[in-house]
Amino acid sequence: HTRGPAQGGVQGPSEGEVQSASPLRDLEPDDILQSETQDVCESDPHVGMDRAAPEKGSSRACEVEVASFLREYLGTSIQGPATKQSVVDKLADQRHVRFSKYAGSLEWSNAIVVWVNIDGNDYSNMFLDGGKQMTWFAGGKQSEKTPVVQRLISSAPRADVPDAATTVLLFCRLKGEPYVCCGRLGYVRHDAHKRPIRFVWSLLDYAALGTSPHFKQLLGEASRLQK
Predict the structure, then answer these.
(1) Number of Cβ atoms within 10 Å of the Cβ of 226
(2) What residues contact residue 37 under an 8 Å CB cut-off, 6+ apart?
(3) From CA 115, how far away is CA 214, in angstroms rounded?
(4) What digits encode the pLDDT tens for the residues 156-193?
(5) Contact yes or no for 209/75 (Cβ under 8 A)
(6) 0.70 surpassed by pTM
(7) CA proximity to 209, closest of 86, 78, 76
């Protein structure tokens, strides 16, 4: 497969840590648009005993080529309409997959995408330690028993487990602008007593993102909103 040109890319994965603050907002639903289904994806290897297998052609049945995607798009502004669809098209390498645009996360067979808008409304996520870490809230009706939350807790790649089965990817955007690929998230902790559940993530590619003007713009706006 061939991919389109990336804008302002950076290279190389790295790790992060904790402290300072800037708010982000959990993404509200976009227009709900689903791609045409094609039988290009297979079954989900992460199906639990109580979880139905994904439908063919859905994102949860499709695998993302994470390493090659990050080599091309880490730190870039995803070109095309400023919607989730543009990101999904790149992640699926132009395969047609079905997905809902209502959730703040999107499951794939080997990855989970976390979506965040930076616009200062509602309760806020926060960048910590100058962008090395961030907080993020799960859906309001989700609990530790929700399958995607279980995957986030138990399968998210950590600094000491780089080959974990599930890679968590962060995409942020300023209001009305395209999403920026902010790389991999490493699980730090979560607070199941909060509603929504509060996660703390480490931005594993923070060092490489430091050269991205798009990531710097996100941090700058988040810092401004915090004041």
Answers:
(1) 15
(2) 55, 56, 57, 58, 96, 97, 98
(3) 16
(4) 555 566 556 789 999 999 989 999 999 999 999 888 88
(5) yes
(6) yes
(7) 76
